[in-house]
Amino acid sequence: MKLGQWIGLIALVLSLYILWQLREVLLLIFAAVVLATTLNRLARSFQSLGMKRGLAVFLSVSIFFAGVIGFFWLIVPPFTQQFQELTLRVPQGFERINTWVDEQRTQIPEQLVPFIPDLNGLIAEAQPLFNRVLGNSFAFVSGSLVIVLNILLVLVLTGMFLANPNAYRKVFVRLFPSFYRRRVEGILSQCEISLERWVTGAFIAVCVVGLMSMVGLSILGVKAALALGVLAGFMNLIPNLGPTMSVVPAMAIALLDSPWKPILVLILYFFIQQTESNFITPVVMAHQVSLLPAVTLVSQLFFVTFFGFLGLFLALPLTVVAKIWVEEVLVKDVLDQWVCNHQQDTEFLMLVESPDINDIQELEVTQKDEDS
């Protein structure tokens, strides 16, 4: 390798290392870009009605904050009340089970008594685990503080991007060579359209899943059905894993009424997710974004491994954007062009082996036109 090639390789390795060290910051910036893209589309919708840009942005941001405040207002109070009741009833349930087990000990053969579990012993063994959880409360609070600071950073960046999106877009485009900037503009436009389509499809799926969950839980008589429905719809933004996480609090609250009701809740959520994955998502997302299910799952595992929960939450929009850049840059601009050039070289060698002066001149003229 020549000196210039070695310098280019070292610069590439150093750039990748710096990007890897800044991966969490870059992920927060991407979250702000997704949020700004969503609000910018809403603002453009208001502008199409005749509003000025400033008023449209203000109204879009106001709707967003009203939605966030409404979400926590619906979720936090009912869950706090229900889970406080749950912490009281679960020990009572253990005591009832333990009393029943003690009564059964007197009615079974002595040979089977050692095989009956001792709940008091199990609780005593689990006590160190509870103490460890309580001992890590300070770490949880400090981690929550970091989460709050990250959210504030995302919101501030979103406001900056919304104020003047074209300026930041031009800065990003200027990072590329001049001959490739128009191409980057087109790729960014495709990314923006795909993100807007994903947001639209995800919003429809969230509303449908949340409404179905709320209605089903209300029919079953589960407490806090509205809050659980909103939570189920929100968690549906995380494919595959989100629905599994949303069913846990619903089953826990259903346990307050009767021991069999959590089973019905599990069946209800299974039916809703089957309906969503087999009917809602194919119909809604067919005209929005096209991603293979295996690609979605692998992207989730990859991003949650390297970026944590935020990577899991942003796995789908990250995959949508990465898919566009890979198709446009790697496939179309590199691999497809390499195949074309390779075919032209092969045709030229074939002509050299069996020369025909007219064909050679025609091929040379074609290559000069493509180079120019």
From TrEMBL:
InterPro entries: AI-2E-like. Keywords: Membrane, Transmembrane, Transmembrane helix. It comes from the Bacteria. It is found in: Membrane. GO terms for cellular component: membrane. It holds the Pfam family AI-2E_transport. It is a multi-pass membrane protein. One of its GO terms (biological process) is transmembrane transport. The chain crosses the membrane at residues 25-43, 55-76, 138-162, 202-235, 301-322. Coiled coil: none annotated. PANTHER family: TRANSMEMBRANE PROTEIN, TRANSPORT PROTEIN YDBI-RELATED. Belongs to the autoinducer-2 exporter (AI-2E) (TC 2.A.86) family. This is Permease.
